[in-house]
Amino acid sequence: KSYAGKWIYQPLIKSPVYWRVIVLGEKSLGMMKKNSKRFLQSGEGEKPNVSRKEIESLAIKATQALKAEFTGVDLLADKDKLMIIEVNRSSQFQIFEKLTKVNVAEKLINYLTIASE
């Protein structure tokens, strides 16, 4: 109440899902959907109206903006407006591999091997 410094305000987005996209090079390795029930009461939030292509495209653009080659990008949507939650340069991908059946470690090793030749 008495703090006079700068504040950052961000509205609460009530979305029932968000997504994790793993980006390697300039390609999406895939996408997994995460339920955000932990943050919502039953029945809250509207189902987002965005396509997989839009989600993956924004994740790739975010990775390129950071001049990164390997990221895990978390995104959510408020109705039809897609937003980035965060871009992780040292993405954890064990759960992603289990859910998507994509061998991220193998793809990363192949990518690095080709880049070093």
Report on this model:
The protein is 29% helix and 29% strand. The longest helix has 14 residues, at 52-65. Strands 2-1-3-4 form a four-stranded antiparallel sheet, with helices on both faces. Strand 1 (17-24) and strand 2 form a beta hairpin. It is built from three helices and four strands.
List keywords for this structure.
four-stranded antiparallel sheet; alpha+beta; single chain; 117 residues
Could you give a quick summary of the protein structure above?
With 117 residues, the protein is an alpha+beta fold. Helices cover 29% and strands 29% of the residues.
> Shape, please?
globular
Radius of gyration: 17 Å
How far from one another are the termini? 59 Å
Helical content class: 25-40%
Assembly category: single chain
Give the number of DSSP strands.
Answer: 4
Order of helices and strands: EEHEEHH
Low-pLDDT segments = none
- The fraction of residues in strands falls at 25-35%
> How many strands, what sense, and barrel or not for the largest sheet?
4 strands, antiparallel
Structural class: alpha+beta
What average pLDDT do the residues reach?
Answer: 84
**Count of individual helical segments:** 3
Strand order of the largest sheet: 2-1-3-4
